[in-house]
Design brief:
- This protein has helices at 21-63, 69-98, 111-149.
- With 163 residues, it is mainly alpha-helical.
- The chain has one domain (22-147).
- The protein is elongated and about 75 Å long.
C-alpha cells in the first residue's frame, strides 16, 4: 500500500489579469454587424426599384406571349418577404443607435451589455436571413431559367465575299 498526500493550496491565490481578447472579439463582431446592417440598408432602399424593374420586364415578356407565371410567382414571394423583413431591419436601428455596451467608437465599455447587443443583432439578422434567403434564391433561379428558355434565336446572315 502506498500513501497518498494532497498538496495544500496556497494561502492566497493571485488571479490572472483579464485579457483583452474577449473585448477585441466583441468589438470585431460589433464592427462586422454594423457593416451587415449598412449592407442590408442598401438592400431595403433598393428593393422597391429592383422589384419595379423586374415587374416591368415580366410585363414586357408577358405582352410578347411568353409564359411568366413562374417569374411572377417568384417575384411576388420575394416582394412579400421583403415587406416582412423590413420591420425587423428597422428594429435593428434602435440597437445600433443605443449601442449598449459600446462607446461611440465601437470600443467595449461593458462586456455583458456588449455581448447582449451583439447577440440581439445576430438574432435579428438570422430572422431576416430566414425570411429572404429562399425567396431571393428562387427569384434568381426563376430569372436564370427564364433567360435560358427564352434566348433569342440567332439566324446567321449571309456574308458577302469581297473579291
Amino acid at each position: 500500500m502506498a500513501n497518498v498526500f494532497a498538496i495544500e493550496p496556497p494561502d492566497s491565490i493571485t488571479p490572472t489579469p483579464p485579457t483583452t481578447q474577449p473585448s477585441d472579439r466583441l468589438e470585431s463582431a460589433w464592427a462586422k454587424e454594423k457593416e451587415i446592417y449598412n449592407k442590408l440598408g442598401l438592400l431595403f432602399n433598393n428593393s422597391d426599384p429592383i422589384i419595379t424593374k423586374i415587374q416591368g420586364l415580366i410585363n414586357k415578356a408577358k405582352a410578347k406571349g411568353k409564359d411568366t407565371a413562374v417569374l411572377q410567382s417568384a417575384l411576388d414571394a420575394f416582394s412579400e418577404a421583403v415587406k416582412q423583413a423590413e420591420p425587423i431591419y428597422q428594429s435593428i436601428e434602435g440597437i445600433v443607435n443605443s449601442h449598449q455596451g459600446f462607446d461611440e467608437n465601437g470600443k467595449v465599455t461593458d462586456q455583458i451589455q456588449a455581448l447582449a447587443t451583439v447577440n440581439d443583432m445576430r438574432g435579428k439578422f438570422l430572422e431576416i436571413r430566414q425570411l429572404l434567403l429562399d425567396p431571393r434564391k428562387a427569384l434568381r433561379e426563376a430569372i436564370k431559367t427564364f433567360r435560358e428558355g427564352n434566348k433569342p434565336s440567332i439566324t446567321p446572315s449571309p456574308t458577302q465575299k469581297s473579291g
